[in-house]
Design brief:
Elements (H helix, E strand, L loop, with lengths): L17 H8 L12 E4 L5 E6 L5 H11 L7 H16 L6 E8 L2 E10 L4 E9 L6 H16 L4 E4 L4 H9 L21 E4 H6 L4 H6 L9 H6 L12
Parallel strand pairs: 5-6
Antiparallel strand pairs: 1-2, 2-3, 3-4, 4-5, 6-7
The structure holds coenzyme A.
């Protein structure tokens, strides 16, 4: 876009270093406490260890997600495509205050959960995926990220939405989440309804969720042996969903 200047100017062209543009495109990061790592015994006895994804793991996660999003069932395609975009956005620093959790079983990538902070009070839940089905891994991953928001980051509200029947069943219905009036309030994922959990509702009711789903709580006292086994993430050879 060009408009003639309203006054005589001494130099009529300026050049910029892209390093000067970058601070305008990259949001300054909030100071966020890290997720400390936790484990959960699944109903079949396997141990799911949930840790933060490492930025250097993003390329392998992207390569696997490209394959997962080709699964044309249970909304793995739309969720996979959006998750791929979110991982790239994180890797290329185009997401405001994101967090990425991976669920691992002996190092094997089994679950995913992410979100981002709108501000200090509101945590926007983005996506949750079970990469191995039938173990309630997705249920635990979602609970872990909500726990992170309410118990570690001190958020006051949780905003979610649902693209799939399984997601709605697990948390919209499973946590009896109310929703804000629609279309006045729209979630950033496609303008769908905003379902929400307040800190009061979390404390009074939702905190029980993972115990009811798996029979145990998240365990933050993780033995070194479990941390070590899950230090290096491995991709499943095949898409298992
Ligand atoms: C939503 C989601 C994360 C839930 O994961 P989950 O809690 O681990 O549960 P699953 O989807 O594996 O299974 C749901 C139920 O169907 C059964 N099921 C479905 N597909 C199954 C399969 N292939 N093998 C075994 N069980 C299966 C499970 O046993 C489970 O029943 P349960 O309630 O008695 O445990 C997962 O379905 C998913 O990743 N879906 C695609 C992405 C998505 O929709 N994300 C949420 C966006 S809103």
């Amino acid at each position: 876009m060009r408009i003639d200047p309203p006054e005589k100017i001494s130099v009529d062209s300026m050049t910029f270093d892209v390093r000067e543009i970058e601070p305008l495109l990259q949001a300054p990061a909030m100071d966020i406490k890290p997720w400390p790592g936790a484990m959960c015994k699944l109903k079949d006895g396997r141990i799911l260890y949930i840790r933060e994804a490492k930025l250097e793991e993003a390329p392998m996660m992207m390569s696997y997600m490209k394959r997962v999003m080709e699964a044309e069932h249970d909304f793995y395609d739309v969720v996979g495509a959006r998750v791929l975009a979110e991982i790239v956005g994180w890797y290329r620093k185009r997401l405001k205050d994101p967090y990425f959790l991976v669920g691992l079983i002996d190092g094997l990538w089994a679950g995913f959960a992410n979100g981002r902070l709108l501000n200090e009070d509101i945590n926007i839940s983005l996506h949750t995926m079970a990469l191995i089905r039938g173990g309630r891994i997705g249920a635990v991953m979602y609970y872990a990220k909500a726990y992170y928001g309410f118990e570690i980051l001190g958020n006051k509200e949780w905003w979610a939405t649902y693209e799939s029947y399984n997601g709605w069943m697990r948390w919209g219905l499973g946590m009896a989440q109310p929703s804000y009036p629609w279309p006045e309030y729209q979630h950033e994922l496609g303008g769908a309804r905003v379902y929400y959990v307040t800190k009061e509702y979390w404390d009074s009711t939702v905190k029980e969720y993972v115990r009811q789903m798996t029979g145990t709580d998240l365990e933050f006292n993780v033995p070194d042996e479990i941390r070590k086994k899950n230090e290096v993430m491995r991709l499943p050879e095949e898409v298992l969903v």
